[in-house]
């Protein structure tokens, strides 16, 4: 804030103040009315109410919008700034409108945040992505896609859904952009939401081979959070994953050659036969990320 103030003061030459503004500054009531006019000009649908108290600091403008947004602008500070430089009236008002706009933006983001809590990550394959693109072209979608796709590892990609009590829909690139969710922010949001399911994750097995069970929707996705539950899988070497289906997550010890052979066979069979099949490849959790297992 200090830097922006310096830029405003010294970054460019200020306009010459009007003589009348210097010799006859507005009183508090007139200034407050001008302030309210600036808000009305920006939000014609706003409801405004001016309140004057016993002291300068009590003067306020309460305003609201039809969408439920409500805010209070206290006038005292901006009026003092105006009295220090009466020729800068429009600048002072513009700054206050900008502050009010920021309050509205925060309110809107609060509503969006509730929507963002429904976003969850889902693993898919590159083949699925290509089929979806072909279907979109076939129905006239051209190059447009209805979902965000992010390369993940090997033949897997990552997409995102909005999982609500009454529906589950893919998050579209247009909707993600509207909410200000770039790829990094979107992924962080989805993983943060997925962490809510950690207490429900049931890890079964022993002797180096384990199955992680969740809800048949996000089982495979839990591999993205392995660092949060790796203590429940006591492998001696690296953790090797079969992500063969949406509802299957099997983990093996990289030092268990027999277990790896069994894991590879399971991955091939499940990915081929499951209605939610994913990859026949094996993956290793290394350096905080999934990588194709070459062992």
Which regions contain 5 or more consecutive residues with pLDDT less than 50? 1-22
Compute the separation of the termini in Å.
Answer: 54 Å
Adjacency order of strands in the biggest sheet: 8-9-11-10-12-13
Number of helices, where a helix is a run of at least 4 consecutive DSSP H or I residues: 10
How do the SSEs run, as a string of H and E? Answer: HHHEEEHHEHEEEHHEEHEEHEE
Largest sheet: 6 strands, antiparallel
Task: Describe the protein.
- The chain has 295 residues and is α+β, with helices and mostly antiparallel strands.
- It folds into 3 domains: 2-115, no CATH class; 119-195, no CATH class; 196-292, no CATH class.
- The protein has helices spanning 2-10, 19-23, 28-42, 76-84, 89-116, 126-138, 173-178, 183-194, 226-229, 257-273, and strands at 47-51, 60-64, 70-74, 119-125, 150-153, 156-164, 167-170, 202-206, 209-213, 239-245, 248-253, 282-286, 289-292.
- Strands 8-9-11-10-12-13 form a 6-stranded antiparallel beta sheet, with helices on one face. Strands 4, 5, 6 and 7 form a 4-stranded antiparallel beta sheet that branches. Strands 1-2-3 form a 3-stranded antiparallel beta sheet.
- Strand 6 (156-164) and strand 7 form a beta hairpin.
- The chain starts with a helix and ends with a strand.
């Amino acid at each position: 804030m200090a830097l922006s103030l310096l830029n405003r003061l010294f970054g460019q030459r200020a306009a010459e103040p009007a003589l009348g503004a210097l010799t006859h500054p507005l009183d508090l009531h007139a200034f407050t009315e001008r302030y309210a006019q600036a808000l009305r000009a920006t939000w014609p649908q706003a409801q405004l109410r001016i309140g004057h108290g016993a002291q300068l600091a009590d003067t306020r403008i309460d305003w609201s919008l039809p969408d439920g947004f409500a805010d209070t602008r206290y006038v005292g500070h901006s009026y003092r700034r105006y009295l220090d430089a009466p020729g800068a009236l429009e600048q002072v008002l513009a700054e206050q409108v900008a502050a009010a706009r920021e309050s509205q933006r925060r309110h809107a983001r609060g509503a969006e945040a509730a929507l963002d809590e429904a976003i969850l990550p889902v693993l898919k394959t590159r083949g699925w992505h290509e089929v979806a693109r072909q279907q979109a072209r076939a129905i006239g979608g051209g190059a447009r896609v209805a979902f965000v796709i992010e390369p993940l590892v090997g033949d897997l990609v990552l997409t995102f859904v909005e999982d609500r009590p009454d529906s589950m829909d893919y998050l579209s690139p247009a909707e993600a952009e509207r909410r200000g969710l770039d790829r990094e922010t979107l992924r962080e949001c989805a993983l943060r939401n997925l962490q809510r399911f950690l207490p429900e994750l049931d890890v079964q097995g022993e002797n180096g081979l384990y199955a992680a069970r969740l809800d048949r929707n996000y089982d495979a996705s839990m591999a993205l959070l392995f660092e949060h539950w790796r203590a429940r899988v006591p492998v001696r070497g690296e953790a090797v994953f079969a992500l063969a289906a949406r509802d299957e997550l099997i983990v093996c010890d990289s030092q268990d050659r027999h277990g790896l052979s069994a894991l590879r066979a399971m991955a091939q069979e499940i990915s081929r036969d499951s209605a939610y099949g994913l990859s026949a490849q094996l993956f290793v959790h290394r350096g905080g990320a999934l990588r194709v297992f070459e062992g």
